[in-house]
Write a structure and sequence with these properties.
- Helix content is 73%, strand content 3%.
- By secondary structure, the chain is mostly helical.
- A hairpin with a 5-residue loop joins strand 1 and strand 2.
- It is rod-shaped, with a radius of gyration of 28 Å.
- The protein starts with 7 loop residues before the first strand and ends in a 10-residue tail after the last helix.
């Protein structure tokens, strides 16, 4: 019986190209995680879109408050509220930047995983293994 991580041997004693247990585990794990990564990516994208909309609404509200403040005959001090809105906008932009960076890292990781998976599949299909590989 062949150990996991070693190449199978034919009846003539020659190695038969086949995936190792480690390769199968890695590929299975990647396929298991791929839907979660894609779902997370779509949720991050939706949050980023909603934050852009929120930022636009804050900008509109701040502009409107400034206009109202200028048009009022009675002095209303709306400056603290405008400052609070601008502070909230700054925080929304900060969170959006953090999400954008996380999404970019996730995209690069997904690309690297797909590239490595394709490379391993090509190696398995061709029967060519890198030096030091346990599949020799």
């Amino acid at each position: 019986m062949a150990r996991a991580g070693s190449a199978a041997v034919s009846g003539a004693g020659t190695p038969v190209a086949g995936p190792t247990g480690r390769d199968l585990f890695a590929e299975g794990l990647l396929e298991f995680l791929r839907p979660a990564v894609l779902q997370l990516d779509s949720h991050v994208h939706a949050v980023r879109e909603s934050q852009v909309e929120l930022r636009e609404q804050i900008d509109n509200l701040a502009t409107e408050l400034c206009r109202i403040n200028e048009d009022q005959k009675v002095a209303l001090d709306l400056d603290p509220y405008v400052k609070k809105l601008l502070n909230a906008r700054r925080r929304v932009v900060l969170v959006n930047n953090i999400l954008q960076n996380a999404q970019e890292r996730l995209r690069r990781l997904n690309h690297s995983v797909a590239k490595e998976t394709a490379r391993r599949r090509a190696m398995l299909d061709s029967g060519v293994y890198p030096p030091g590989s346990p599949s020799k």
